[in-house]
Structure of Pseudouridine synthase:
Amino acid sequence: MRLDKFICKSTELTRTEAKKVLKSGEVRVNGEVAKNAAMQVHENNTITIDGQVLIARGSRYYILHKVVDSICSNIDEVYPSVLNFIEVDKAFDLHIAGRLDADTTGLVLITDDGRWSHNVISPKKQCQKTYRVWLRNEINDEKLADLVTKFEHGLQLQGEDSLTRPAILMRVEKEDLVDEMSYRSEVLLTITEGKYHQVKRMFAAVGNRVVALHREQIGRITLGDLAPGEWRALTAVEIAQFL
């Protein structure tokens, strides 16, 4: 992780205060003075401030049921940051592993472990993310079969050089419908990447429009009984998926 972040995880210093300490020349990495806040450090490095060895606190991992009109950002903007919902110390030192749009609800993973979040969001890791999608136009069974094939083979999105990675599209089982009237316009889509507005753009590419979007699952992690706006710490088993 970045050296300034390591200092924050090892002390009570803020990021601004950590940078001031670095500029003063008080920080050493493996015996050498280090002033670059962006310097990457690792577990086997010895990092000191005025000779005092720093030991980073353990990383934190949370799940949140995101509500509409909140944003996956570390600052409040037009809408509040989802980090306002996480009632822990230094919540704004955390970051979101896989962002959702302001109008999208559902599962958000939050951590301060950069390598862990990389394993969640990197397309190379093939982590599946499942979304419940409500569409403007209904899809009959024949059309659905055609779309399943297209999504599996990849779609050409406007402005992209390559096709989307293979995706899984399926009808929501009737017993799982939020509203039985939406049977032909409610589907589940599973993808392994996260291009800008990807789900919305994929359906736009096949002549439909997403009117509501909800992320249900990342890897084997689901929302379970979490109500909108609620959060909890991830279990050791859930965390281990992406280590």
